[in-house]
Amino acid sequence: MSTEPGTLVELFKDAINSRLDAEVFRYKKDKAWTGLLGATLLNRVRSLTLALHRRGIAKGDRVAILAESGPLWSITDYAILSAGAINVPIYPTQSVTQVEYILRESEPRMLFISTSRQAKRIVEVLKRLPDLPVVSFQPIADLERSITLEALEAEGEALAAGRPDLYEALSCGVKPEDIASIIYTSGTTGEPKGVILSHSNIVFNALAAGRHLSIEPSNIMLSFLPLSHIFERMVLYLCLHYGVQICYSGGIETVASDLREVRPTLMSTVPRLLEKMFARMQRTAEEGGPRKQRIFNWSLSVARRVAERRSSGRHIPLSLNIQRSIADRLVYSKLRQAVGGRMMRLVSGGSALQADLALVFNGAGIPVLQGYGLTETSPVIAVSTLEHNRIGTVGHPLPGVEVKIAADGEILTRGPHVFQGYFKKDRETDEVFSNDGSGNGRWFMTGDIGLIDNEGFIRITDRKKDLIKTSAGKYVAPQLIEGALSQSEFIEQSIVIGNNRKYVSALIVPDFERLNEWARQSGIKAAEKRELIEQPKIVEMMKGEVNRLTQELADYEKVKRVALLPEEFTIDGGELTPTLKVRRKIVEQKYRNLIDSLYPAGSE
Predict the structure, then answer these.
(1) Per-residue pLDDT at 342 exceeds 70
(2) Which residues fall within 8 angstroms of residue 485, CB to CB, at 6 or more apart?
């Protein structure tokens, strides 16, 4: 390509026209992997674009997608963009109330929906929006007003036969400054806000991230994160531009088998998946008996030492290299096979990755690269690379992205990646920008606390709004403590409490599978989860785990009291966002009485 694309539509057309005979996408159909050729993809996007035009979708109109990730999601996305319209993605896991809020505020001219299950879930919402046309990825018998994607594409094919130049005319009318998407933040507090991103915002980010990571066409990408989130969506744009084949996973339920079958070299992930993978590895080692567990633990120790030296640019001595070679034959090679055997980059984002976990994976030859960004920044601000992977940091800023630290420690950024504002929320938009008076543009205030070391690596310490201030005036970073607790094989989830309180406490959801094993081995009989967590011996064991994992913290940061919960935090329960971040205020409201019991009269 002689020139770089200015819009996502140009990016799509340039990439596909150079790969018409290649399998651009792969996906599971009838339990077997099948490919989608570039020429077929282009024809489907062209047909759907023309059908949207025929149905009255014009430049600047909004079109919503409520669907699981997959090739149909991407085809619909490219068609919406090619028509000059604005994609409003909705997580398939969002509550009915949130779906209705997004549909009412964004006022889409059309809604794409994946399955009859999704349609049934929001059937009452659709009744209250009788004028909203619905397109379904599969036939929905109970929704008379819907048309299938297949039927809509057929309309476009017929139009293309009579007007072969229409797709080119429509797609060439899209400009870099045009809005590409309004993405509603999942929001850990308050109602969702629609983040307005232009074509130039996302194209800049995709190209800059690709160059920064040195992405080559020989890579194979496994995509399992939701495309409703800008992180995965931008990565797929990046892959398309750089000629990387994209394989769509069936989701979190099938990602383990998909990894073994696809054997990808590239994948974007979230810390939760890596934590679960590591927990499975630990469990397998334990089940192998004391000798196997000793070998596993020794191998982890070697991996940590190797990764620590690599991370800081120090020489790895011969003795450690020999140990690494032995550990590789015994343990690491099996760990690499669990992610397909040829993984070159696991890019982790969305939330903080524990440094110890990063050390283990990197030391075992599975390159985990921590990134950082927000929906408002398209999304990547910084990401580690294979050459510069300082464990515990999120790497250097992308080329063209400016970052500085405010006086109170907040991370500020500006550049072509920063969003256009919140949809219909001018006041909220103004609140997240500051001006340094230089006349060079406003800085976006990320809401994250961090620092930049003397080599330019960015380290995130916590969310500004999440910082706990105890009644003694001490500031505590809850994510630091929660990250430490996540290293326990007995702890599935945790949230730290303590704002305006005398000391720090924690609500903990145990890993009940592991806890049940421990209970049986300890002679404890308990049939139900609630009965299990009320056993004094288990409560004491969990307190011991918390004390062990937080012993290096300052005294005011240490967890003084613990409450065990019988049910995990979920998206459906409202405690988690669709990107699996804890909604702290919701959790604190839901368990208000339990939290109060951790601070009896006289303790405050």
Answers:
(1) yes
(2) 491, 494, 506, 508, 545, 546, 549, 550, 559
